[in-house]
Amino acid sequence: MAAFWGCGFFGAQDTLLDDQLRHYFKECFIEGSIDFIFGDGRAWQAYSRVVFAYTYMPAIVASAGWDNWGQESRNSTVFYGEHGCRGDGANMAGRVAYARNLDDSQARPFLDASYIDGHEWLKPLDDALIAPVSA
Questions:
Q1: Of the N and C termini of the chain, which has fewer Cβ atoms inside 10 Å?
Q2: Where are the alpha helices (DSSP H) in 67-126?
Q3: 0.85 surpassed by pTM
Q4: Of 19, 35, 103, 112, which residue is the catalytic one?
Q5: Residue 25 has what pLDDT?
Q6: Which stretches of the chain drop beneath a pLDDT of 50?
Q7: Is residue 99 part of a domain?
């Protein structure tokens, strides 16, 4: 388990591997090109779950947003959600059909450290560090 506050991760392909146990990122900047945030079961695997919330997405983000790598059967098992994102790349008009534009109630479970049982292992200096994310 690891927590990162105010960190920068810069690279091209495979910039940030997030695949074992629980990780918490708050106010971090992550920049890359292909699969720059990836983990065990990677984003194109069946039953993967990825949620971007309150994220700045520049125009370089592909309008489709996601790619099933030719495996149509994955379209019904993956969970790709976006909530409150901004920037030219955050326009969901061109997203694949299985991408989800989450409303407040759908996004809420992902916006609190309790989603990763943070109350059990995050030891912040003050409670504000694990408070729910807001716009």
A1: C
A2: 104-107, 118-121
A3: no
A4: 35
A5: 82
A6: 125-126, 135
A7: yes
